[in-house]
Amino acid sequence: MEYFDLHCDTLYKVLQDNSDFYDRRYHISIDRLECFKKWTQLCAIWIPDEIRGDSATKLFNEAVNAFQKHRVLNDKVSMHFAVENASMLAGDVGNIELLVQNDVKYVTLTWNDENELGSGAMCANPKGITSFGKVVVKELEKNNIAVDVSHASDKLFYDVVKIAKKPIIATHSNSRAVCEVKRNLTDEQFKIIRDMGGIVGLNFYKGFLNDDEDKSSIEDLLRHADHFLNLGGENALAIGSDFDGADMPCDISGVEAVPTIYKRFCDEFGANVTKKVFFTNANMYFTNFDII
User: Fold this and answer.
1) For the whole model, what pTM was predicted?
2) 4, 19, 151, 211 — which has fewest CB within 10 A?
């Protein structure tokens, strides 16, 4: 099977543990990918909200070094660099050059709280996009770096939509209609991304799958997929597992569970739709917009 995952946090763990992508403690390790014909992984470096300014930029640079040292890239495995939380720019648009130099594929504009661009989804009093955020969105598009609205507050989401000239993405966000948390997308938001030609990655985090997270399972992932597909999302739905960045349901231990998930999707939605969700849609998005 071919698999394209829009979001994992394994790089952050590799950096913090001074480890590598073969570490079997993680949800993802290279030696557990034998069953994949092709495995494409976007590895995001998470910048925690409490790390700001030059310290955030420093963490980004450390992640660059770790990724370059440990990255795997061959006929089967293809790993690419991304950023989760644009606070690494430290409020300086000139730092976008760091993204360009290091071939960053997408930038998640915020994490859960506020940064220099706007408010994250978990802010108590969320605000929309700042003047700096408007400049950043334009510069990201100019440099063929995808704009990711996962973690964005609703106000930030709609402000980004107003100024975006290229299709935006939500790399790891589920359906708010199925699981009512602010981090998930409303039906309207999903349709906007769909109509723009963007993609949405299904998140495996148990807290975004089921209102009672202790009951979360692969079946909930199917419920979210079914909901998005019924909204006309056959060409917009993808996978953004959030491996190594979130607690998984009891039946998703790590990357070795993906073939089981794939089979359940085939049983439920058919092989053609499943292939689109697990590989084709994401691969086409990044290929069409010259990002990969």
Assistant:
1) 0.97
2) 211
